[in-house]
Amino acid sequence: MCRMVTTQSRERFLKVNRSVRIAGHSTSVRLEDAFWRALEDMAALEGMSTSKLIAELYYEALEQHGSAPNLASVLRTVCLLYREERNMHRDMPRLA
Q1: DSSP secondary structure string, 39-92?
Q2: Rounded distance between C-alpha atoms, residue 49 and residue 20, angstroms
Q3: Cα separation of 30 and 16, whole Å?
Q4: Is 19 in contact with 27 (CB distance < 8 Å)?
Q5: What are the CA-CA distances from residue 58 to residues 3, 26, 65, 96 (Å)?
Q6: How far apart are CA 28 and CA 50, in angstroms?
Q7: Phi first, then psi: what are they for 95, rounded to 5°?
Q8: What is the b/e burial string over 53-74, where b = at least 16 CB atoms within 10 angstroms of the residue's CB?
Q9: How far apart are CA 76 and CA 54, in angstroms?
Q10: What's the confidence (pLDDT) of residue 94?
C-alpha cells in the first residue's frame, strides 16, 4: 500500500473546530488539520486571512450553485482541487 496513514502524524487526522465570520455571522467549521493547513496555504498565496478565504469560497459556492449546505464538504473539495491544480502546474514543462 501507499503507507500515507502510517507515515503521517496522528495530529494531521484530528478534526479541529474553528470559528469563522461569514456575512457578519459567526459559524463553526470542523475540518481535519491537514485541510486547515491547505486552506492556510491557499489564503497566504491569495494574500488574505484564512477566514476571509473561507468567506470568499462560501460566496462563490452560493453564486455558482445557489447554496452551500455543507461548508466543510465544499472546503475539503476545494482543498483537493487546489492541490490538483498545483500539481498540474508544477509538472508542466516551463518555456524558456
Answers
A1: HHHHHHHHTS-HHHHHHHHHHHHHHHHS--S-HHHHHHHHHHHHHHHHHHHHHS
A2: 11
A3: 5
A4: yes
A5: 33, 13, 10, 38
A6: 13
A7: -85, 140
A8: bbbebbeebeeeeeebeebeeb
A9: 11
A10: 54
At 69, list the grid cell: 449546505
The Cα-based distances of 46 to 13, 40, 42, 52, 95 in angstroms read 25, 10, 6, 10, 25
Closest CA to 35 of 18, 48, 21: 18
Q: What pLDDT digit, counting tens, does each position of 34-66 carry? A: 999 999 999 999 999 999 999 999 999 999 988
Cell of 11: 495530529
